[in-house]
Amino acid sequence: MIRIMGLDFGSKTVGVAVSDPLGITAQGVEIVRRTSENKLRRTLARIEELVAEYQVTEIVLGYPKNMNNTIGERAEKSLAFKEMLERRTGLPVVMWDERLTTVAANRTLMESGVRRENRKEYVDMLAAVYILQGYLDSRGRTENE
């Protein structure tokens, strides 16, 4: 059984998704609210709890590169978060290009009729689902080739 966790790391929230036991589909789990940009202790502790609860074996973290493929401040923070996650959980953390996930998540919510003011409630979790699903799909392709 493999369970992979997908994370969308933002300045105020972290969207969390996990794969099914076969590693085929991603489901949204929750949005971890961050009290302040620089305090990650509680965020990491909650992610650790979820890792234990779902028996996660690997983590996929959204990598917010700029559209021109350069690395900005958000990507730097994500890389620092990756190191913290690896230290805390002892699990491998894979960086996954997330450039269009938030856009896709917003579009999906819009098309499903979620009102704009409610969208931000779900967008981070849905973005985590897209990050994880993209990764799962790419693994499936690699295994089939």
List the helices and strands and how they pair.
Elements: E1 4-9, E2 13-19, E3 26-33, H1 41-54, E4 58-63, H2 73-89, E5 93-97, H3 101-111, H4 116-144
Parallel strand pairs: 1-4, 4-5
Antiparallel strand pairs: 1-2, 2-3
Helix pairs in contact: 1-2, 3-4
Descriptive notes:
It is globular, with a radius of gyration of 15 Å. It contains 4 helices and 5 strands, in the order βββαβαβαα. Strands 3-2-1-4-5 form a 5-stranded mixed beta sheet, with helices on both faces. It has a single domain (4-144), classed as 2-Layer Sandwich (Nucleotidyltransferase, domain 5). It has helices at 41-54, 73-89, 101-111, 116-144; strands at 4-9, 13-19, 26-33, 58-63, 93-97. Helix 3 (101-111) packs across helix 4 (116-144).
Task: Return the structural class.
Answer: alpha/beta
Under CATH at level 1, the class stands as: Alpha Beta
Low-confidence stretches: none
Helix count equals 4
CATH architecture term: 2-Layer Sandwich
Shape: globular
Count of β-strands:
5
What is the CATH superfamily classification? YqgF/RNase H-like domain
In the sheet with the most strands, the strands line up as 3-2-1-4-5
What characteristics describe this protein?
145 residues; alpha/beta; 5-stranded mixed sheet; globular; Nucleotidyltransferase, domain 5; 4 helices
How would you summarize this macromolecular structure in one to three sentences?
This protein is α/β, with parallel strands linked by helices and 145 residues long. It has helices at 41-54, 73-89, 101-111, 116-144; strands spanning 4-9, 13-19, 26-33, 58-63, 93-97.
